[in-house]
Amino acid sequence: MSAAEVHAALQDWAARLVSLRAVVVTRLRPGLTYREAATLAARHGYELDEDVAALWTWRDGTTPGLPAAHLAPGQEFAPLDASLRRSREYHEASLAEARGERRTWQAHWVVAVHGHALPLVLDGARPGPDTFRHDPHAHPLHVARSTLAQRVARWHEMVDTGTWRVARDGTWDVDLTHLPDVPHARRQDLT
Hints:
The strands form 3 sheets. Strands 3-4-5-6-7 form a 5-stranded antiparallel beta sheet. It has a two-stranded antiparallel sheet with strand order 1-2. The protein has a two-stranded antiparallel ribbon with strand order 8-9. Helix 1 (3-20) runs parallel beside helix 3 and helix 1 packs parallel to helix 5. A hairpin with a 5-residue loop joins strand 8 and strand 9 (172-174). By secondary structure, the protein is of the alpha+beta class. The chain contains 5 helices and 9 strands.
């Protein structure tokens, strides 16, 4: 998945959010250049390729200091600096709590959005990047993974079905009675 494909998927999502009058679109910060993202990542001990950095080269999160505005329900889109800081904290805690060979956080994982329960993570390993919800208690092979563009397509589906909708105040409303019967599609291109 190229950075251009990620940008296109996110731009379509942003256009959808504008049409829904979601408040988050008024709080999105301009995207970083890849050079800015790579420099910032290096300060936190990360090497980000363009595909992983694409989320923040599209937009660098939402403006800090304002009331929460979510890219999708319960999903705070933080600037890259905050995401890398949170990722490093997860990694350091994982090293401190390592259970034999199994660590609960890998060095190449970056928090994409901070979920109310489980963070959405970008996995910078190859093939990738994947996204998944990080659950430290789940086995890595049992976690649904998808590309960021596939995940954004699922977000559209959630709006299409009425599971997610934007309330009059521009914030998200969720109605799980409209949840689609088909689970999140798994990536087919992994070997």
